[in-house]
Structure formats: C-alpha cells, structure tokens
Amino acid sequence: MMRMVDVIAKKRDGGKLTAEEIKFFIQGYTRGAIPDYQASSLAMAIYFQDMDDDERADLTMAMVESGDQIDLSEIEGIKVDKHSTGGVGDTTTLVLAPLVAALDIPVAKMSGRGLGHTGGTIDKLEAVEGFHVEISDEEFVRLVNEDKVAVIGQTGNLTPADKKLYALRDVTGTVNSIPLIASSIMSKKIAAGSDAIVLDVKTGAGAFMKTDEEAEKLAHAMVKIGNNVGRRTMAIISDMSQPLGYAIGNALEVKEAIETLRGEGPEDLTELVLTLGSQMVVLGGGAKTLEEAREKLQDVIDNGQALEKFRTFLTNQGGNGDVVDDVTLLPQASYKIEVPARQTGTVSSIVADEIGIASMLLGAGRATKEDVIDLAVGLMLRKKVGDKVEEGESLVTIYANREDVEEVKNKIYDNIEISDAAQAPKLIHTIITE
Length: 434
Ligand code: URA
Ligand code: CA
Fold this sequence. Notes:
By secondary structure, this protein is α/β, with parallel strands linked by helices. Helices cover 44% and strands 16% of the residues. The protein is built from 16 helices and 13 strands. A four-stranded mixed sheet has the order 1-4-5-13, with helices on both faces. A four-stranded antiparallel sheet has the order 6-9-11-7. Strand 4, helix 10 (212-228) and strand 5 (232-239) form a beta-alpha-beta unit. Helix 4 crosses helix 9, helix 4 (53-64) crosses helix 10 and helix 9 packs across helix 10. The radius of gyration is 22 Å and the shape is globular. The site of calcium ion has 8 residues, from strand 6 and helix 11.
C-alpha cells in the first residue's frame, strides 16, 4: 500500500514522483484522507526540490480530475481561452472576446467575480444595463455556435484539489513555487474545457511575478504543461509596472473597451490586445502566422465588425447594446475630481497595485466576498509613465459617489512620481510560442 510519508520523503530527497504517487496525494488530500500537515510538508519539499515536466503535467491533470470538467464539445471549432495572471485596470478580456469572435473563432468564456481592485470580467459587463451571465449550458452553447461569443458564470465544482491546496500554500510559505503555481493555473484553465490557451503573464510592481526572469520561468512552465497534456498553449510576458490603459473601474473600463474596439483606445491596451488576439487567432486556426492574424484583427477593428460583435454579444445576454454608440448609458459617478500635478516634469512611475487600491477605496472592487461593487466609480489616468506634465495639470480624474476623497487623493500622490526625465516602459517583453 502507498503511504503519504514515503511520497514526502521521496520528494524531500530529490526523487521523481510517479503519476500514481501524485494521484494518490491529490485524491487523498481532496477527500480529506491525507491531512493538511502532510500536504504542506510535500508542498515544501516540492518548493525546494522542484518537479520535472512529467511531474508537472501529472500534477496538473490530477487536479483537473479532482472535480468537474466542462464539456465544450458541442461547440464547433477550436475553442481558445485566454488567461491573465492579473493586473490593474486589465480591460483586455472585454476587448478580446468580441474582437477574436469577429474572426469566427469561438470564444466560450467562463468567468468569475473575485476580489480585487476592480470587479472581474462579469462585474464589468454588468455595468451594461440588463446584461447577465445566468444562462443555461444549452443557451451558452447555442450562443457560441451562432455568434461565436458568450460568457457564463463559474459553475460546477472545478478543481477542488487546487482550491484546497492553494489555501494551504497561502499559509505555509509555499505559494511562490513555479511547479505549484503553473499547475494551479493550468488545472483551472484545462478543467474549463478550451482546446487551446493563451497566457498573459504580467511582470512588474502590479504583478504576481515581480521580475522578468521569474515571469519567463512561469510562462515556459505553463506553456509546457499545456502542450504536454494536449492543449496547444502560447504565452506572452507583458509589463504591469503601471496600470494598463487609462481606466481603472468597471463602467470606465467598459467605455475604454468600446473605444478600443473602435480603434480609438489607449496605445498600450490596443497593442496588448492585438498581440494576445493574434495568438488566439493562430491557435484557433484563423491564420497561419501571427502577422497574418494581426492584420485580420486590425481589419475588423477598422471596418467596425469588432464593435458590432460586441453589440451582438451584449444584446444576446440581455444587455442594452446601444451602449456601443452612447457610452453615457453606462452608470455615471456623481463627482469628478481632478488630481493636479504639484510640479512640472515627466511622469516616471505609477505604482500599479497601489493605484489599484486607490480605486478599490472608492468602491470599484471587493476586499471581501460580501462587498458590493459600485460600478460607476474608479480612476481615469490622464498621464502615463513617460508623459510630460505641467504643474496644475491633471494626473488622474477620480470618479466618485462621495465628495470626500482625501484618502484616495493622498494615495495617488504617494504613488505617482514626477522626475526630470523618464521613458515609457516596454509593454510586451517576450512572446513564447512553444
Ligand atoms: N494564481 C493561482 O491561481 N494559483 C497560484 O498558485 C498562484 C496564483
Ligand atoms: Ca484599463
């Protein structure tokens, strides 16, 4: 009979775990037969001894098999999903879903609400009056088959092993391990059912991975896992030292998404969307090369089809599609308060995560699951790193539903630096196709 203590000792001594040993651990831990203290001991052994490619793939699939797996087989075509390791003001999904669908690549998106600086993709979309994700599985499949894009709320019991293990790692100093992070993220994407996966791994102050080196290691690990278990996977490393785009807030980001789909969005958001979108189109079989895919995406932005796809998508799920012509239909904040620069110079840093917290203080995001989001509030950056600014010119506009925003203002001043000179950071650091 297999014993957990032997599995732990083997990994402690640098051994390679078999698929059976990994399954034994994951299955036993999920049903409660293996206690937390043994699981945390193994996690620590993995932290120090690492896992090879086989072990990483086996761990991922064991976690996938610990719960439900979404069956998207009734949707025609190659279903491509996108995952971002998380950033501030990351509006990419709102733009990418209709943009890629406009090229007839099916986007069957399962999404969540979650905690953070702003809401999740679903919260943001709910800023559009009437839009909802409470649709049946049949309706979801029908919409994607007909119009190539739909979003449904997280359903079912996906990767319970990951849920339990992640919570344990959080309190045992074992979060920061490449094999554990990579298998955790990939298990969730694989259980969600897509055939191919595009990953946006962020680096910088606002990101989970603070350095390029760490981000690249994680990206390569995830791409390898995906390809080893039969899901074609690509990744990019992108900058999150400052927030993406200008908008940080739910309705504000929907407005920014509409502008971007119209070809009038912020430069960085547009570039990121075209880069990730190109990978999705190639994986989805819509183009042979990234260059060809990019041209096609640019075409549907230029000819209005991407924006029309967004309208169809919103309308299909009960939303008022007129917002694409008239963004004033989105929830509006009562107060707009400028934050003027205190000196002349060049913006040299905008600390992404702290600016995200400023937005959360206004009510744009949740600190706990019970918090109610105010969809109208948030921040609009008026300057980005590398921009020149005159004393008195606005750095940020605060959209608030209360007059007293001193705390938010102070946080913004503390986290935007103005110097003599600075350059805009490079947005796309690396493109990983295998
Ligand atoms: N995000 C995840 O989903 N899992 C990890 O382990 C780390 C970050
Ligand atoms: Ca944004």
